[in-house]
Specification:
The protein has 514 residues and is of the alpha+beta class. It has 13 helices and 22 strands. It folds into three domains: 211 residues, Histidine kinase-like ATPase, C-terminal domain (Heat Shock Protein 90, 2-Layer Sandwich); 138 residues, Ribosomal Protein S5, domain 2 (2-Layer Sandwich); 111 residues, no CATH class.
């Protein structure tokens, strides 16, 4: 292998092993697939793109073909990266190579790219030109088919990518249908209506296929659910070059609604789907977790269930956040991106946006989410202190308990598990609302609640999960306590505060392992 081959081999390996964000959503190969589609849409100006995946025994292949104008100059295509391009969709040249390396990590993989141009004046098709792997950049010239006996391929013009791969790159997506639906959801969440109007996507996976002609984008689907009263718009506004719309799915997450069926990754009513889809000129770059970027919290929380936002930047690209080379996320240190996050946080604060699932008593969003000082504990109860003194009572803020029966008398168990009871007064019904919860960091968890929530009980316990289950079971059976309707299992109302505190204490004491 020559020194140049070694150089490009190293670049290929480095790119293949560089992590892609949001792989909890989809496999890396699918997350970066839009890199090839972007070229067809923006540079190729294609009206149709075919995405074909075939499984022939151990030989698997991806082929992306468009009917666009081809390319005028292949120098940028064969450069590993381009820093000077000012198109927001093609600011970098590394994306297409990144996509190839994620479909096949082997530098010597079988792949090619080919194109044909058409002279718009003479309306004469040019020669079919092919560049085959392994990648050597501009050190290797593409091959023109001077015979050009094939008068069907990419006629009158077009562009095509082809690469062979191992089916294992799809991870848990085992069936043809699962892979097709994943690509379908990615396209519908990545591209706005203007792209779907301009370009038809046809996705083939073996013998099944779908066309995008009848597809709605993800945001369009939520707008339809607003008409069906399954979704509400909490905020919608355009400021400068940024448009922000925030939706809330206001039906039970276990019920049937359209986004849940058609967008099984991004359309559910759960913490994982609580995202803000951030786009440049209608092309989604990052699908960011609400809790991570827009709250300042250290953990996700059930209160975000049902929140789905969309941000779109239009206009001068220099006023837009900078995407990473694979356009799956933005650069976190980009000043414009930082200001964008701050602006969204301010919008949430100014509009008092926080969802607590209590639909039946009329509360949708009007609880503050402002940082609060460490709450004053109105009651601090710990563990039962039997006459045998089998368990050491914890005072102040301890770090351990001693349980003599476990292995030996000197066994020390780190105890950083908390169970807590908090309450707030419903502003509409004036009912006392209670929430029972557990956490490994009580102070941090309390920052998830606004100052309207007061602390009744905090307990340090060994098995906080079991304790919480016991209390919830008791609450549901008690006639004085009413569970609030909705998917949230931890909110209750009760007129007698002492009664509900008494149940909590008794169940906690009963749950202590002696």
């Amino acid at each position: 292998m020559s020194s140049k081959e070694e150089h490009y081999n190293a670049q290929w390996r480095a790119s293949a092993h560089e992590a892609v964000p949001y792989t909890q959503d989809y496999p890396e190969c699918l997350l970066v697939l839009p890199e090839l589609l972007d070229g067809s849409i923006a540079q190729g100006n294609a009206s149709r793109v075919n995405i074909r995946i075939d499984f022939n025994g151990n030989k698997c292949s991806l082929k992306v073909t468009d009917n666009g104008i081809g390319i005028k100059s292949y120098t940028r295509l064969l450069s590993w990266a381009s820093k000077n391009n000012q198109n927001t969709h093609h600011r970098y040249g590394h994306g297409s190579k990144k996509c190839l390396t994620k479909w096949n990590k082997n530098y010597n993989a079988t792949w090619y790219v080919r194109w044909r141009q058409c002279c718009p004046i003479k309306k004469i098709s040019g020669l079919l030109t092919t560049y085959k792997g392994p990648f050597l950049g501009l050190e290797k010239d593409p091959i023109e088919d001077e015979e050009d006996n094939d008068q069907e391929t990419l006629m009158p013009s077009g562009f095509e990518w082809y690469i062979e791969f191992d089916k294992e790159i799809f991870g848990n997506l085992k069936t043809d249908q699962a892979i097709l639906y994943a690509i379908k959801e990615i396209i519908r969440t990545r591209y706005s209506r203007k792209f779907l109007n301009k370009t038809e996507f046809i996705v083939h996976v073996n013998n099944i296929y779908e066309s995008s002609k009848d597809w709605l984008t993800f945001q369009e689907t939520l707008e339809e659910e607003v008409k069906n009263n399954n979704c509400k718009v909490l905020y919608r506004n355009t400021k400068d070059n940024m448009t922000y719309t925030l939706y809330y799915i206001n039906v039970d997450g276990r019920s049937d609604f359209i986004p849940k069926k058609e967008f099984p990754t991004y359309g559910l009513k759960n913490m994982n789907s609580s995202r803000i889809h951030m786009s440049l000129d209608g092309r989604t770059i990052e699908i960011a977790e609400i809790w991570k970027y827009f709250t300042g919290l250290e953990n996700n929380h059930n209160d975000f269930n049902g929140l789905i936002g969309f941000v779109n930047f239009e206009g001068d690209y220099t006023m837009m956040p900078t995407p990473c080379t694979t356009k799956v996320s933005f650069y976190e240190n980009c000043e414009i991106f930082i200001k964008c996050k701050e602006e969204i946080i301010k919008i949430h604060q100014d509009n008092n946006i926080r969802v607590v699932i209590r639909d039946k008593i009329g509360i949708l969003a009007p609880l503050e989410r402002k940082p609060i000082e460490k709450p004053i504990l109105q009651s601090l109860a710990i563990v039962k202190e039997p006459s045998e003194k089998k368990i050491k009572k914890i005072v102040s803020k301890p770090k351990e308990t001693v349980v003599p029966e476990m292995k030996n008398k000197d066994t020390v168990i780190e105890c950083t598990n908390y169970i807590y009871l908090i309450f707030s007064i419903d502003p509409e019904t004036k009912n006392n609302c209670y929430k029972i919860g557990c956490s490994t960091n009580f102070d941090r968890r309390m920052k998830d609640y606004g100052p309207t929530w007061k602390v009744l009980i905090v307990i340090y316990t060994i098995d906080h999960i079991t304790a919480e289950k016991r209390i919830l079971k008791k609450f549901k059976k008690d006639k004085k306590i009413k569970k609030l309707d909705g998917p949230e299992k931890e909110y209750f109302i009760c007129d007698d505060m002492k009664h509900i505190m008494h149940i909590v204490m008794n169940e906690l004491l009963e749950s202590i392992p002696l």
